[in-house]
Amino acid sequence: MAANLVRRSISKIPSSYPASSVILSRHHASEAQGAAEPKATKTSTTKTFSIYRWNPDSPSKPELKTYEINLKECGPMVLDALIKIKNEIDPSLTFRRSCREGICGSCAMNIDGCNGLACLTKIPDASAEATTITPLPHMFVIKDLVVDMTNFYNQYKSIEPWLKRKNPPETKGKEILQSKEDRKKLDGMYECILCACCSTSCPSYWWNPESYLGPAALLHAHRWIADSRDEYTKERLQAINDEYKLYRCHTILNCARACPKGLNPGKQIQSIKHLQLSS
After folding, report:
1. Exposed/middle/buried for 261, CB within 10 Å: 0-12, 13-18, 19+?
2. Averaged pLDDT, 147-171
3. I need a surface site. Which of 49, 113, 226, 272 has the fewest CB within 10 A?
C-alpha cells in the first residue's frame, strides 16, 4: 500500500520538473531541521548569571561580571550555581556558605533584587533574563558577596540574648520548667537564624544602621521578653525603650517579605510597642 502511495505522488509531479531537484530539496530541508535542534537545546539549558565583583586589593571599581553555565550539569539552587562557577570557571569568586539547608544563614545575598538564602532560592528558568546576584544591600562589602556583619552581631549582642534569672531554679541542677502554653508563645521567634535578610531589607535600618536595632535584633529581644522563664522582662523593655532603638520601625514590613524562614519581625516589634504602653 505504501508503495502505491509513493507511485501516485511521483506520477503527479510534472515530467518537466527534474527528480534530482526534489531529492536535493528534501535533503537540504532535513539539514536545516538538524541544524536548528542543537541551537534550541543550548538556549533551553544555558543560564547567564551577573554577579557583583569587588576586590579590596584591586583599585578598580565594583562591577557585575557575567558567567554562563549549563543547567543540566548543575544543581537546582542558586548556591549550586555559585559553587559550580567557583569550582570550574572562576576560583576567585568569594561568598559565604555552610549548611546548604537553610539553617546557618551564611549564604544570605540579594538575588534579582530580593534578599534571600542562595541555598533555598531556585535558579530561574533558563529562558528568563540573566540572574543578578549582589551582596546584602547597605552593608560594607569585604569582598565580592561577603559583607561585614560586625554591626549586625553587636546589635544582637546588645539585647542580651540569653536567659536571665533573679532566683535560682527550684531544684538545684535541674532545668527550669515551662508549660506548653508558655512554650508556644515563642513560636515565630526562636526559628530566626540571624541571616540579616530582614534587617538589610528595611529602609529604616538603611538610614540608621548604628542607632536602630533592626528587625532581627528586636525579634530576638521580644523572644526573651516573652519567655516565661526569664525574670528581667521589665529591664529588657527599659533597655530598648528608645526613640531610635525601637521606634524607628515604621511597619513597612519589608522584613516579613524578605525572611527566608517565613517569620514576621514587624509583628514582634509591634508587640514590644504594646508592652511598652502597658508597662
Report:
1. middle
2. 95
3. 113
